[in-house]
Write a sequence for this structure.
Protein backbone atom coordinates (compact mmCIF):
# COMPACT_ATOMS: atom_id res chain seq x y z
CA UNK A 1 0.00 0.00 0.00
CA UNK A 2 1.41 3.37 -0.99
CA UNK A 3 2.41 5.79 1.77
CA UNK A 4 0.33 8.91 2.35
CA UNK A 5 3.42 10.95 1.40
CA UNK A 6 4.27 9.99 -2.18
CA UNK A 7 7.41 7.81 -1.92
CA UNK A 8 9.70 9.76 -4.24
CA UNK A 9 12.39 10.07 -1.55
CA UNK A 10 14.35 7.35 0.23
CA UNK A 11 14.13 9.26 3.49
CA UNK A 12 16.62 8.80 6.32
CA UNK A 13 14.95 7.62 9.51
CA UNK A 14 15.62 10.77 11.53
CA UNK A 15 12.99 13.15 12.88
CA UNK A 16 14.03 16.61 14.00
CA UNK A 17 11.97 18.75 16.34
CA UNK A 18 14.14 21.84 16.59
CA UNK A 19 17.34 23.46 15.46
CA UNK A 20 19.61 26.28 16.51
CA UNK A 21 22.40 27.69 14.38
CA UNK A 22 24.36 24.79 12.90
CA UNK A 23 22.73 22.16 15.11
CA UNK A 24 19.65 19.96 14.80
CA UNK A 25 18.00 18.01 17.61
CA UNK A 26 15.93 14.87 17.00
CA UNK A 27 12.66 14.05 18.73
CA UNK A 28 14.58 11.62 20.97
CA UNK A 29 17.14 14.24 21.97
CA UNK A 30 20.14 13.42 19.75
CA UNK A 31 22.19 16.38 18.49
CA UNK A 32 23.62 16.55 14.97
CA UNK A 33 26.00 19.07 13.46
CA UNK A 34 24.21 20.07 10.28
CA UNK A 35 26.50 20.41 7.26
CA UNK A 36 23.59 19.82 4.89
CA UNK A 37 21.73 23.06 5.76
CA UNK A 38 18.65 21.95 3.85
CA UNK A 39 20.98 21.41 0.85
CA UNK A 40 22.68 24.82 0.92
CA UNK A 41 19.48 26.59 1.98
CA UNK A 42 19.79 27.56 5.65
CA UNK A 43 22.56 30.11 5.15
CA UNK A 44 21.86 31.72 8.54
CA UNK A 45 21.36 28.43 10.31
CA UNK A 46 18.24 27.20 12.07
CA UNK A 47 15.80 29.44 13.93
CA UNK A 48 17.89 32.57 13.49
CA UNK A 49 16.15 35.12 15.73
CA UNK A 50 16.35 37.90 13.14
CA UNK A 51 14.60 35.77 10.52
CA UNK A 52 12.07 34.49 13.04
CA UNK A 53 11.19 38.06 13.97
CA UNK A 54 10.90 39.18 10.34
CA UNK A 55 8.62 36.29 9.41
CA UNK A 56 6.51 36.57 12.56
CA UNK A 57 6.03 40.32 12.13
CA UNK A 58 4.92 39.91 8.51
CA UNK A 59 2.68 36.93 9.34
CA UNK A 60 0.76 39.14 11.73
CA UNK A 61 0.05 41.66 8.97
CA UNK A 62 -0.36 40.08 5.54
CA UNK A 63 0.42 36.68 3.99
CA UNK A 64 -0.73 36.75 0.39
CA UNK A 65 -2.38 39.13 -2.04
CA UNK A 66 -1.13 37.88 -5.47
CA UNK A 67 0.78 39.84 -8.06
CA UNK A 68 -2.33 41.67 -9.18
CA UNK A 69 -1.25 44.36 -6.73
CA UNK A 70 1.98 46.09 -5.76
CA UNK A 71 4.04 44.37 -3.06
CA UNK A 72 6.33 46.96 -1.43
CA UNK A 73 8.57 44.32 0.17
CA UNK A 74 9.17 42.76 -3.23
CA UNK A 75 9.97 46.09 -4.83
CA UNK A 76 12.47 46.79 -2.06
CA UNK A 77 14.10 43.36 -2.35
CA UNK A 78 14.32 43.64 -6.14
CA UNK A 79 16.02 47.03 -5.85
CA UNK A 80 18.51 45.68 -3.32
CA UNK A 81 19.34 42.73 -5.58
CA UNK A 82 19.80 44.92 -8.64
CA UNK A 83 21.95 47.36 -6.66
CA UNK A 84 24.20 44.49 -5.55
CA UNK A 85 24.50 42.73 -8.93
CA UNK A 86 24.68 43.15 -12.69
CA UNK A 87 20.89 42.99 -13.01
CA UNK A 88 18.30 45.65 -13.79
CA UNK A 89 15.17 43.65 -13.00
CA UNK A 90 14.00 40.64 -10.97
CA UNK A 91 11.19 38.09 -11.23
CA UNK A 92 10.43 36.29 -7.94
CA UNK A 93 9.66 32.57 -7.85
CA UNK A 94 9.04 29.84 -5.28
CA UNK A 95 12.00 27.63 -6.17
CA UNK A 96 15.22 27.27 -8.10
CA UNK A 97 13.62 25.23 -10.85
CA UNK A 98 11.09 28.00 -11.44
CA UNK A 99 13.89 30.56 -11.56
CA UNK A 100 15.62 28.46 -14.24
CA UNK A 101 12.36 28.13 -16.16
CA UNK A 102 12.07 31.91 -16.13
CA UNK A 103 15.64 32.22 -17.43
CA UNK A 104 14.91 29.78 -20.25
CA UNK A 105 11.74 31.64 -21.20
CA UNK A 106 13.52 34.99 -21.07
CA UNK A 107 16.20 33.70 -23.47
CA UNK A 108 13.65 32.42 -25.95
CA UNK A 109 11.55 35.60 -25.76
CA UNK A 110 14.68 37.73 -26.19
CA UNK A 111 15.24 36.29 -29.64
CA UNK A 112 11.54 36.03 -30.49
CA UNK A 113 10.89 39.76 -30.06
CA UNK A 114 14.03 40.46 -32.11
CA UNK A 115 12.53 38.55 -35.04
CA UNK A 116 14.59 35.40 -34.50
CA UNK A 117 12.03 32.82 -33.32
CA UNK A 118 14.17 29.98 -34.65
CA UNK A 119 16.77 30.68 -31.94
CA UNK A 120 15.46 28.57 -29.08
CA UNK A 121 18.14 25.99 -28.27
CA UNK A 122 20.38 26.28 -25.21
CA UNK A 123 23.85 24.82 -24.71
CA UNK A 124 24.14 23.14 -21.29
CA UNK A 125 26.77 20.99 -19.59
CA UNK A 126 27.14 17.40 -18.54
CA UNK A 127 26.87 16.94 -14.79
CA UNK A 128 24.56 19.93 -14.42
CA UNK A 129 21.52 19.98 -12.18
CA UNK A 130 18.92 22.66 -12.90
CA UNK A 131 15.81 21.28 -11.20
CA UNK A 132 13.10 18.65 -11.54
CA UNK A 133 10.59 20.10 -13.98
CA UNK A 134 10.39 18.64 -17.48
CA UNK A 135 12.36 21.56 -18.90
CA UNK A 136 15.02 21.57 -16.21
CA UNK A 137 15.69 17.82 -16.28
CA UNK A 138 16.07 18.12 -20.04
CA UNK A 139 18.49 21.00 -19.52
CA UNK A 140 20.51 18.94 -17.04
CA UNK A 141 20.50 15.90 -19.29
CA UNK A 142 21.07 13.42 -16.46
CA UNK A 143 19.77 10.02 -17.57
CA UNK A 144 18.82 9.14 -13.97
CA UNK A 145 16.36 12.04 -13.78
CA UNK A 146 15.10 11.64 -17.34
CA UNK A 147 14.26 7.94 -17.02
CA UNK A 148 10.55 7.30 -17.41
CA UNK A 149 9.76 10.84 -18.53
CA UNK A 150 10.42 10.51 -22.25
CA UNK A 151 10.38 12.17 -24.61
CA UNK A 152 12.83 14.69 -23.19
CA UNK A 153 11.78 18.25 -23.83
CA UNK A 154 13.71 19.39 -26.92
CA UNK A 155 15.91 22.45 -27.09
CA UNK A 156 19.02 21.55 -25.09
CA UNK A 157 22.49 20.49 -26.25
CA UNK A 158 24.79 19.04 -23.55
CA UNK A 159 28.57 19.25 -23.83
CA UNK A 160 31.35 18.38 -21.34
CA UNK A 161 31.72 20.80 -18.43
CA UNK A 162 34.80 22.96 -18.78
CA UNK A 163 35.25 22.25 -22.50
CA UNK A 164 35.17 25.58 -24.36
CA UNK A 165 35.86 23.98 -27.74
CA UNK A 166 32.88 21.65 -27.32
CA UNK A 167 30.65 24.55 -26.32
CA UNK A 168 31.74 26.51 -29.38
CA UNK A 169 31.12 23.50 -31.64
CA UNK A 170 27.60 23.09 -30.23
CA UNK A 171 26.54 26.60 -31.26
CA UNK A 172 24.20 26.48 -34.25
CA UNK A 173 21.90 28.94 -36.01
CA UNK A 174 19.12 27.85 -33.61
CA UNK A 175 21.17 28.49 -30.44
CA UNK A 176 19.75 31.16 -28.15
CA UNK A 177 21.87 30.94 -25.00
CA UNK A 178 24.41 29.08 -22.87
CA UNK A 179 23.33 27.92 -19.38
CA UNK A 180 25.97 27.02 -16.79
CA UNK A 181 26.58 26.65 -13.06
CA UNK A 182 29.77 28.40 -11.89
CA UNK A 183 30.09 25.49 -9.45
CA UNK A 184 28.27 22.24 -10.16
CA UNK A 185 26.85 21.26 -6.78
CA UNK A 186 24.75 18.18 -7.45
CA UNK A 187 27.21 17.20 -10.17
CA UNK A 188 30.02 16.71 -7.66
CA UNK A 189 31.10 20.17 -6.42
CA UNK A 190 33.00 20.82 -9.63
CA UNK A 191 34.29 24.39 -9.93
CA UNK A 192 34.39 25.87 -13.42
CA UNK A 193 38.02 25.87 -14.65
CA UNK A 194 39.85 29.18 -14.68
CA UNK A 195 38.89 31.18 -17.75
CA UNK A 196 35.90 28.98 -18.58
CA UNK A 197 33.17 31.49 -17.70
CA UNK A 198 35.09 34.25 -19.48
CA UNK A 199 35.35 32.02 -22.52
CA UNK A 200 31.61 31.36 -22.48
CA UNK A 201 30.95 35.09 -22.17
CA UNK A 202 33.10 35.67 -25.25
CA UNK A 203 31.26 32.95 -27.18
CA UNK A 204 27.94 34.55 -26.30
CA UNK A 205 29.12 38.00 -27.36
CA UNK A 206 30.53 36.73 -30.65
CA UNK A 207 27.37 34.79 -31.53
CA UNK A 208 24.64 37.07 -30.19
CA UNK A 209 23.66 34.66 -27.39
CA UNK A 210 22.63 35.20 -23.79
CA UNK A 211 24.75 33.87 -20.94
CA UNK A 212 22.50 32.31 -18.29
CA UNK A 213 23.95 31.44 -14.89
CA UNK A 214 22.49 28.97 -12.42
CA UNK A 215 23.56 30.23 -8.99
CA UNK A 216 20.81 28.44 -7.10
CA UNK A 217 23.34 26.53 -4.97
CA UNK A 218 26.46 28.70 -5.32
CA UNK A 219 24.82 32.06 -4.62
CA UNK A 220 23.97 34.24 -1.62
CA UNK A 221 27.42 34.15 -0.04
CA UNK A 222 28.08 30.42 -0.32
CA UNK A 223 31.50 30.85 -1.98
CA UNK A 224 32.59 33.97 -0.08
CA UNK A 225 31.18 36.44 -2.61
CA UNK A 226 27.51 37.31 -2.89
CA UNK A 227 27.50 35.26 -6.10
CA UNK A 228 30.17 32.87 -7.33
CA UNK A 229 30.59 34.47 -10.76
CA UNK A 230 31.75 37.67 -9.06
CA UNK A 231 35.10 35.97 -8.39
CA UNK A 232 35.71 35.93 -12.16
CA UNK A 233 34.58 39.39 -13.20
CA UNK A 234 32.26 37.82 -15.77
CA UNK A 235 28.87 39.49 -16.14
CA UNK A 236 25.91 37.29 -17.15
CA UNK A 237 22.72 38.38 -18.88
CA UNK A 238 20.35 36.33 -16.71
CA UNK A 239 20.88 34.54 -13.39
CA UNK A 240 18.72 32.11 -11.43
CA UNK A 241 18.86 32.31 -7.63
CA UNK A 242 17.09 30.38 -4.85
CA UNK A 243 18.02 28.27 -1.80
CA UNK A 244 19.99 30.72 0.36
CA UNK A 245 18.01 33.82 -0.63
CA UNK A 246 15.12 32.65 1.58
CA UNK A 247 17.25 31.29 4.41
CA UNK A 248 14.87 28.32 4.61
CA UNK A 249 11.68 29.98 3.39
CA UNK A 250 10.78 28.76 -0.13
CA UNK A 251 11.70 31.44 -2.63
CA UNK A 252 13.78 32.08 -5.70
CA UNK A 253 14.49 34.83 -8.18
CA UNK A 254 15.43 35.33 -11.81
CA UNK A 255 17.69 38.35 -12.30
CA UNK A 256 18.24 39.91 -15.71
CA UNK A 257 19.63 42.91 -17.51
CA UNK A 258 17.14 45.27 -19.13
CA UNK A 259 18.24 44.11 -22.58
CA UNK A 260 17.88 40.41 -21.76
CA UNK A 261 14.42 40.93 -20.25
CA UNK A 262 13.05 42.95 -23.13
CA UNK A 263 10.67 40.18 -24.15
CA UNK A 264 9.23 39.67 -20.67
CA UNK A 265 6.26 41.99 -20.99
CA UNK A 266 2.88 41.85 -19.18
CA UNK A 267 1.22 38.47 -19.64
CA UNK A 268 4.31 36.57 -20.78
CA UNK A 269 5.09 35.03 -17.38
CA UNK A 270 3.59 34.80 -13.92
CA UNK A 271 3.41 33.13 -10.53
CA UNK A 272 0.57 32.96 -8.01
CA UNK A 273 2.80 32.82 -4.94
CA UNK A 274 6.07 34.22 -6.27
CA UNK A 275 7.09 37.37 -4.43
CA UNK A 276 4.42 37.04 -1.74
CA UNK A 277 4.78 39.27 1.36
CA UNK A 278 6.02 36.46 3.62
CA UNK A 279 8.84 35.49 1.26
CA UNK A 280 9.80 39.10 0.65
CA UNK A 281 10.02 39.84 4.37
CA UNK A 282 12.37 36.90 4.87
CA UNK A 283 14.42 37.66 1.75
CA UNK A 284 14.99 41.23 2.90
CA UNK A 285 16.00 39.98 6.35
CA UNK A 286 18.51 37.55 4.80
CA UNK A 287 20.09 40.36 2.79
CA UNK A 288 20.21 42.57 5.89
CA UNK A 289 22.71 40.10 7.38
CA UNK A 290 24.49 38.71 4.32
CA UNK A 291 25.29 42.23 3.10
CA UNK A 292 26.86 43.28 6.41
CA UNK A 293 30.50 44.33 5.84
CA UNK A 294 32.07 41.39 7.69
CA UNK A 295 29.68 38.58 6.72
CA UNK A 296 31.37 37.40 3.52
CA UNK A 297 34.81 37.87 5.08
CA UNK A 298 33.69 35.45 7.81
CA UNK A 299 32.61 32.89 5.19
CA UNK A 300 35.99 33.07 3.44
CA UNK A 301 37.94 32.92 6.69
CA UNK A 302 36.14 29.86 8.03
CA UNK A 303 36.23 28.20 4.59
CA UNK A 304 40.01 28.63 4.30
CA UNK A 305 40.54 27.20 7.79
CA UNK A 306 38.15 24.30 7.15
CA UNK A 307 39.79 23.43 3.85
CA UNK A 308 43.18 23.26 5.52
CA UNK A 309 41.80 20.83 8.10
CA UNK A 310 40.10 18.76 5.40
CA UNK A 311 43.35 18.47 3.46
CA UNK A 312 45.01 17.18 6.63
CA UNK A 313 42.23 14.59 7.02
CA UNK A 314 42.61 13.54 3.39
CA UNK A 315 46.34 13.05 3.83
CA UNK A 316 45.71 10.83 6.86
CA UNK A 317 43.19 8.72 4.95
CA UNK A 318 44.35 8.44 1.33
CA UNK A 319 42.59 5.10 0.98
CA UNK A 320 39.24 6.77 1.72
CA UNK A 321 39.50 10.34 0.40
CA UNK A 322 40.82 11.16 -3.06
CA UNK A 323 40.30 14.92 -3.20
CA UNK A 324 39.03 18.01 -1.40
CA UNK A 325 37.28 20.29 -3.86
CA UNK A 326 34.96 23.27 -4.03
CA UNK A 327 34.89 26.98 -3.32
CA UNK A 328 34.11 28.81 -0.09
CA UNK A 329 31.66 26.82 2.01
CA UNK A 330 30.48 24.83 -1.00
CA UNK A 331 32.90 21.97 -0.48
CA UNK A 332 33.14 18.35 -1.51
CA UNK A 333 35.07 15.25 -0.53
CA UNK A 334 35.63 12.93 -3.48
CA UNK A 335 35.74 9.40 -2.17
CA UNK A 336 38.05 6.76 -3.63
CA UNK A 337 36.28 4.68 -6.29
CA UNK A 338 36.30 1.43 -4.31
CA UNK A 339 33.99 3.01 -1.69
CA UNK A 340 30.55 4.47 -2.49
CA UNK A 341 30.19 8.04 -1.21
CA UNK A 342 26.95 6.96 0.42
CA UNK A 343 29.01 4.88 2.86
CA UNK A 344 30.87 7.99 4.00
CA UNK A 345 27.55 9.85 4.34
CA UNK A 346 26.34 7.03 6.59
CA UNK A 347 29.56 6.96 8.62
CA UNK A 348 29.39 10.72 9.13
CA UNK A 349 25.83 10.40 10.36
CA UNK A 350 27.03 7.81 12.90
CA UNK A 351 29.49 10.45 14.13
CA UNK A 352 26.73 13.05 14.43
CA UNK A 353 27.49 15.02 11.24
CA UNK A 354 24.90 15.47 8.50
CA UNK A 355 26.19 15.85 4.93
CA UNK A 356 24.58 15.05 1.55
CA UNK A 357 26.02 13.10 -1.34
CA UNK A 358 26.54 14.32 -4.88
CA UNK A 359 27.64 13.06 -8.28
CA UNK A 360 31.18 11.94 -9.08
CA UNK A 361 31.29 9.91 -5.82
CA UNK A 362 31.40 13.09 -3.74
CA UNK A 363 30.10 14.01 -0.30
CA UNK A 364 29.10 17.68 -0.08
CA UNK A 365 29.84 19.86 2.94
CA UNK A 366 27.32 22.71 3.05
CA UNK A 367 27.26 24.25 6.53
CA UNK A 368 25.22 27.33 7.38
CA UNK A 369 27.32 30.36 6.56
CA UNK A 370 27.25 31.39 10.22
CA UNK A 371 29.32 28.32 11.12
CA UNK A 372 32.12 29.09 13.55
CA UNK A 373 35.74 28.06 13.30
CA UNK A 374 35.23 25.79 16.32
CA UNK A 375 32.30 24.07 14.59
CA UNK A 376 34.40 23.62 11.46
CA UNK A 377 37.12 22.06 13.62
CA UNK A 378 34.56 19.73 15.16
CA UNK A 379 33.25 18.77 11.72
CA UNK A 380 36.80 17.95 10.57
CA UNK A 381 37.26 15.77 13.65
CA UNK A 382 34.03 13.92 12.91
CA UNK A 383 35.10 13.39 9.29
CA UNK A 384 38.43 12.05 10.53
CA UNK A 385 36.63 9.64 12.88
CA UNK A 386 34.29 8.49 10.11
CA UNK A 387 37.25 7.80 7.82
CA UNK A 388 38.98 5.81 10.56
CA UNK A 389 35.83 3.73 11.03
CA UNK A 390 35.52 3.10 7.30
CA UNK A 391 39.20 2.29 7.07
CA UNK A 392 38.76 -0.39 9.74
CA UNK A 393 35.79 -1.87 7.90
CA UNK A 394 37.69 -1.95 4.60
CA UNK A 395 40.75 -3.51 6.25
CA UNK A 396 38.55 -6.14 7.85
CA UNK A 397 36.88 -6.91 4.54
CA UNK A 398 40.22 -7.28 2.77
CA UNK A 399 41.57 -9.52 5.55
CA UNK A 400 38.41 -11.66 5.50
CA UNK A 401 38.63 -12.08 1.73
CA UNK A 402 42.29 -13.12 2.00
CA UNK A 403 41.49 -15.77 4.59
Amino acid sequence: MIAAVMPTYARIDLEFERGEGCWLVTTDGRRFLDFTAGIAVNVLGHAHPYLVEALSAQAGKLWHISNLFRIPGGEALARRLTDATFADTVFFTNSGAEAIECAIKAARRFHYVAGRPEKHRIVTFEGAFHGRTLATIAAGGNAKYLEGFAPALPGFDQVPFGDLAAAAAAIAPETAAILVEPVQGEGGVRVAPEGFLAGLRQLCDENGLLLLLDEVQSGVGRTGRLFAHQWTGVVPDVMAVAKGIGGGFPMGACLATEAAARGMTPGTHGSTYGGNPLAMAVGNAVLDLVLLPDFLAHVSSVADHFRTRLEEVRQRHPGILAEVRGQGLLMGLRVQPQLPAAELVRALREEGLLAPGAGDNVVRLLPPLVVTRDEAELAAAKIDAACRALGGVLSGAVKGAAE
